[in-house]
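User: Assemble these into one structure.

Assistant: Restating your components, then the assembled model:
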Amino acid sequence: MINDFTIQVATVNGSGSQTANATLVDALFHMGLPVNAKNVFPSNIKGLPTWYSIRVSGEGFTARRDDPEILVAFNAKTLDEDLRALPPGGVMFYPDHLKPAAPRDDVSLYALPANAIMKEQEVDVKFRDRMANLVYVGALAQVLGIEMTAIHDYLTRNFAGKPKVVGANYDIAVAAFEWCAVNLTKTDPYTLRRMDATAGKILIDGNTAAALGAIYGGCTVVSWYPITPATSLAEGLIEWMPKLRQDSETGKATFAIVQAEDELAAIGMLVGAGWAGARAMTSTSGPGLSLMAEFAGYAYFAEVPLVIWNVQRMGPSTGLPTRVSQGDLLSTYYLSHGDTRHVILLPATPAECFEFGWRAFDIADELQTPVFVNSDLDLGMNAWMSEPFTYPEQPMKRGKVLSAEDIVALGGRFGRYQDEDGSGVGPRTLPGNDAMGAAYFTRGTGHTELATYSERPEDWQRNLARLDRKHEHARTVVPEPVVSGEGADTGIIAMGSTHPAIVEGRVMLEREGVDTDSLRVRALPFSPAVRAFIAAHERTVVVEMNQHGQLAILLRTEYPEFATRILSVAHCDGLPLTGAFVAARVKAALPSPTRPEEVNA
Amino acid sequence: MTSPAPSNPAPARPAALNSAGLAKNDYKGLPSTLCPGCGHDSISSRIIDAAYALGLRPHMVLKLSGIGCSSKSPAYFLNGSHGINTVHGRMPSVTTGALLAQRGHTAIAVSGDGDTGSIGIGQFKHAVRRNVPMVYIIENNGVYGLTKGQFSATADQGQTLKYIGTNDLPALDLCAEAILAGAGFVARSFAGDAKQVTELLKAALSYKGIAVLDIISPCVTFNNHDESTKSYGYGKAHEVPIHDITFVPEFDEIRVDYEPGEVLSVRLHDGPTVQLRKLGRDYDPRSRLSALALLEGARHGGELLTGLLYLDETRPTLLDTQHVHDTPLALLPEALTRPSPQSLADVMRQFG
């Protein structure tokens, strides 16, 4: 079995396996192998089981798989259960001081002298737990064929300027590598061979990509509050903003990042900054989004541009804070009270996280409204292969902002909420505009086209009708869906990070003789292309990661004429989708072949 | 015999212009919709007076508020300023964001005791903690007016309201809360004392960081009973100024018209000065501990102590600690807010 299997590393949370696992992934990537890594970790600081899953696929698939062939069992508490789950022909690497309760003879068992190596390398007792992880790195390198130079390269980059740390870690890997060469007889069929499938590519997580995108989108004000799995997005901004956005002449920051006291304050600061003309953003997750609801409705109604990244985790309530879900679609779309509908972008890859990172600001400014970007834990926190990011192709779009000259030309009067071109978007001015008549008053209460307070029914209705026109206009402003396929009867609709599983699932179906087309929704409100896709297929299977099929619900609501041909396949257990799940469930959703006795005479 | 009407009436006297070349009318707002006699309206008038006296340019002023009777006020002054009426209790965060985006503006934020002391106490304390450069006015009447008469967090313990019953809880002292959270300018006044409110406002508008003004502003409809410490009657009877306060703009000659030893002159940032004349109390507003002790003493004595309670000029503002660019962030050119294509290529190499 060459270049096509999954390695699962089981360790104890907080034991420092991050370096070892990152070393493996990076080494495989630099051997030119398509690789994807997923960290399945508990909501805990130390002590609970954590699994790190590394998939190598010569064919380039990056979705999760259910049955890892290779197990690194470095957690005593889960060793027996993990071993039981190993498929026949699988492999288990484990430290020799852990004894499996029920060893299996249909798998290869490699016991590694982890403690002996640590002693021999004279590792300080307080670092032993942490550095013992390098033992499995060296052993996997020997048994599977990972190049030691690639391991050394990663350690050198990761511990730049600390040659002693590099040496100490590498020496352990080498000791394990050499011990395996002398003492292990390879009985498993798994091998890695250098390829050139990753040349020119990068390895990056979605949250870092989103942070970089925002920086290239001219984000100037960030306000945030810590929450898993959105924190690393804000931390990406904190890391990269000073490097990329310091004015070289003055040394002053062209941005401000504030850690707010809570999510209500975080979005409040965005409202103030967006109102005053800055490009403002935050990153949060479900519970934080709930707290932002009131201000989200305010910003929608007062028409203040701002950007909110919702890196989704599993709810309701505290739910599974470190597991993935796409369960916030409905709550985000309608966030707040009254008749509120928001614009949502749905990235599926780090490259899209980068693109939507900057594009979200253009859309928010153009539509003068909050723009939500619904990413998720799998996309946001895991490392993905990606093409390098593309520089924004056009200058920033600031939308309808009137200058002092514009106001003078208009005779000192402008209609803040006047719809002159049918787009539903009126002109605005920014504080500091010194033309007489430029100032206006923003409020969440009923208002006229001139932004004056009004409770008149006709003013209220006119305003809401205009907001509806703006929502229709948004369909033509947001990113178009991505469609692939060649006219099959069955269409698959999905969004976000389920993308790799859809790709692999379609290949599996094709191998079974089932052709499908697919459409990946990239934004709400739906583009007209979504309706066209549903109309062109006999049936559409909507695949998503939540309990109630929220995307399917929205599609049926939007296109009631097609409601019966919109089928829902929803997956909701906290783990990313697999290709096998997609293939099996789409197949199950197809009509069974008509039996002869059912044919009318 | 009546004198005939003049056939050639004298031309109206031209309005007096201030240092910004504007007349007082240029600082007016829309007609108020608050109850006639509301203390909040007199505060609006004082804001107009102070802004006119200081020669503020309205387009460089931001008006902000939350929700409640008080929060309607920004509509009633400075029509030429951008204003925003936000959500209940969360004006401080909106002001923070607005000033991060548009430094150089003077922010006049108006809140109430419910808006600040109850739903908004967290944001209030954090805005103070960050030292957001703003004038934070609390129009304090101890009652929710817009929802027709419920207790706020500054309502008197033991007070009774018709539908709500008796308030069993002690009142929050928002000045003490501000001092504890680190505010550098904390004052208390009474809406009925026009001169003091105006002088405090002028000083607050000239202060570099957050200036908190807790102004007792009687609610004529729901809380103007004589037993209420937020009523006109109580205010008039128990108002005790801790000093006479005079604000001297930097362009005026500083007059020393009191005997030496009786006047404390505190120079604010950029030159203006606050002169405090002792009224029989040996009080220096530059001590946090004294300020808190004074408030505690007043609470026990049932006094409404008014004046500048605490002043500290040394705290850096949020804009200082953030090292925010001199050009407002909202107005930076794209060349400064979108890094170069080369920089992206360099970043990408680090992930390759």
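The longest helix of chain A spans residues 163-183.
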